[in-house]
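Quick one: structure for this chain?
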Amino acid sequence: MKRFAYEQLPAWLLIGVFGLIVIHAPLTVAIGTLWPDIATPIKAWKEVLIGLAGVLVAIRMTQRGHWQMLRYDYLGWAILAYWGLHIGSIAWSDASWQSVAAGLLIDLRYLVFAACIYHFVLMYPKYIPRFIKVSVVGAAIVVGFAALQLVLPADALKYIGYSDSTIAPYLTVDKNPDYVRLNSTLRGPNPLGAYAVIVVAAAASFIGSKQYKFGSTRLKTYGISLLGLGSLALWMSYSRSALVAGMVAVALVLFVRYSGRLSAKVWAVIVAAVLAVGAMGYLIRDTTFVQNVVLHDNPTTGAAVDSNEDHASSLQEGLMRALDQPFGAGVGMTGSASLYGNDGLIIENQYLMIAHEVGWLGLALFTIIYLTFLRRIWHYRADWLALGIWASGIGLGLIGLLLPVWADDTVALVWWGLAALVMARGELHESTTDKKAKRTT
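Got it. Here's what it folds into:
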């Protein structure tokens, strides 16, 4: 019974979140359509599971004396300070209690999830393969359904409750019906593009690894399929920030893997190819395709205000509010959480969104946490998953300049969860290596 409570139950809860989060959107929309009275609370299923897992993991850590490892780890203290600042900001927030509750869940859930996975895996490393398998299956579901949407009617999701009052069954590029943006099983095309960055970076890293080279035909098929379908989902999301992030992430993977093996001639060819692509892009800048897909600025599509103007005005307002309120306006005052109140405010920049809620101190703490994750993951870059998560983390950080990327539950929980898994696996491997070295001396 104790083993079930302290090992198997939190494992099921955490792995369950990993598995179900990729179908969270259609699941909650369908349930909310059938039972409207529980439409809002059902969205919190993942936070409830994470909270329960967190309690069980904390109890087990106390029993095994694992809290001592936090004593000299500034990352743990930074995360605790970030949590505390959000809770403390309730005192000066003018948001409704619904907005405050939603804001706390949105802002803190991925860090709680990461902490749970990190400490649980350190105590029970045998579950690492299960987390990875579930993540791979989840990725296959998302990018696979995105490919299926190419042959389904654009509004096929309306049959399970998608609508303008829940989640739009599909979007277009600036009201142009010739360019339909895919949702897959996520909440929209922008989250799909961001999620696809993780898939593409991890798949590219796997294909360049020893596990792929010496792996079975089935493993190689999985890797190539995820790379191809992930690239398709990334493109068909028509998310420009995600497309740039994906290219940067894959370029980083290739650079880390192969930069030391390339001759000067090869580098010259690569530079020439990049310049040629840039020149071609300049030459076709006035075509319909570029105007719609790249620039999102075709005056013939009928959009009263294009997405470029929306981004610019949102960034300007976010910057002015952050400068006017250096201590922040309080949790729940920004993003989708603020829509539960009377004055909804959407700031299309992850960093300005944080600064608006918890001030410049909150932004500084988040920056320390995020960069520390990236630095520690970089340390284990020889592992294919670590390299893929590191590269995609940089890509997602770039998306955050134009979108509140960590506000999306699927993208945030998957990346931060895998990042914590990579860090724990790397530390366990180092610990095992050190013990073997001591036995041989």
